[in-house]
Amino acid sequence: MVENSFTSITDMVDCVMPALRYFKFLVTNPWNSLTKISNINVPTLFLSGAMDDLVPPWMMQKLYDACGAKFKRFVSFPNGGHVNTHMCSNYYTKMRQFIDEVFERTGDAPNNL
């Protein structure tokens, strides 16, 4: 599960500190999730707060689009912010539905969930 995450540190510089964008070359670890997520091949749920004021929600959409998982879902919470998406209505219901769907697809049954 991925929640309110960024595509890369260098992309975040553009959003959070645009005046420093000319110094992005100094970043020693760009934490480029966008390139790495294409290697993900397990079921993946993306939980995005549409009102996130730290990490722009478009980054979550880009991560979802680039994800290499054959089975993936994207859920947007209209009132979700960066630190309170988990408090949105149906948040845990959506997680449970995803888990149930994964088990249905694999033929396994959840153990005491």
Task: Describe this structure as you would to a colleague.
This protein has 113 residues and is α/β, with parallel strands linked by helices. The protein is built from 4 helices and 3 strands, in the order E-H-H-E-H-E-H. It has helices spanning 9-16, 33-36, 57-66, 91-106, and strands spanning 2-3, 44-49, 72-77. The longest helix is centred in the C-terminal third of the chain and has 16 residues, at 91-106. It starts with a strand and ends in a 7-residue tail after the last helix.
Compact description:
This protein has 4 helices and 3 strands. It has helices at 9-16, 33-36, 57-66, 91-106, and strands at 2-3, 44-49, 72-77. A 3-stranded parallel beta sheet has the order 1-2-3, with helices on both faces.
Q: How many strand units?
A: 3
End-to-end separation in angstroms reads: 16 Å
* SSE class: alpha/beta
- Helical percentage: 25-40%
Helix-strand layout with pairing:
Blueprint lengths: L1 E2 L5 H8 L16 H4 L7 E6 L7 H10 L5 E6 L13 H16 L7
Parallel strand pairs: 1-2, 2-3
What are its keywords?
single chain; 113 residues; alpha/beta; three-stranded parallel β-sheet; 4 helices
